[in-house]
Amino acid sequence: KKRCPDMARGKETPIPLYVPNLIGYARIIFLILSIVVSHRNPLLYFLFYFVSFVLDAFDGYFARKCNQCSSFGAILDQLTDRAASTSIFVILASLSPKEHGWIFSLLCALDVGSHFVVMYSSILTHSDGGHKTQFQGAPWLLRMYYQKRVFMGLLCIGQEACCLCVYFRHMAPHVIFRYLSAQVSFSLFLVFAVLMGLKTWVNVLQGSFAFRNIAQFEMAQKK
Known about the structure:
The chain has helices at residues 5-9, 19-37, 42-65, 71-95, 98-124, 140-147, 149-171, 173-179, 182-222. Helices cover 80% and strands 0% of the residues. The mean pLDDT is 88. It is built from nine helices and no strands. By secondary structure, it is mainly alpha-helical.
């Protein structure tokens, strides 16, 4: 079984220089670049945003492989995830007609707010496994989301794909229709929209369930 070079040599790597954290920094750089070009170059925006999104699949892998899991890395990963979702929601809100922009503002608030409550609940109740292991007794959709990595990945990809479809619809509709017919592209969009709807409902469930955990914890502390 191969190990990371520093592990093999027995060296102690500073936590900010852990491999998964370096990947996290790269994600932030690509995300910033995507935001800078978002209103000028749709294809370059997609490239930068896509690379940042794909790198998210590797930080956890290297954290486990290199035995470099850390609170620093968990917070960095959570921060980068929320920054990414916030950026695309803000961009879509700015591109959408005034009567539709509020939808993306609401989705942004829900995403950031629900994850904040979940992380606060995890810290307050001293959940050893973090926010992914504190949902015993939660609705089946929420348990499935955090217990099945494939299902979690599917919903996350669906949300990103749905947002990117809306983005290209505003910025470069010819790119989509150059490769796909109107019927096929609309069918794909519907699939992505359903997955995004499920992901949005997960945010509602995890926020409300985390609030319940906080209330129960405080009630137990007063007894």
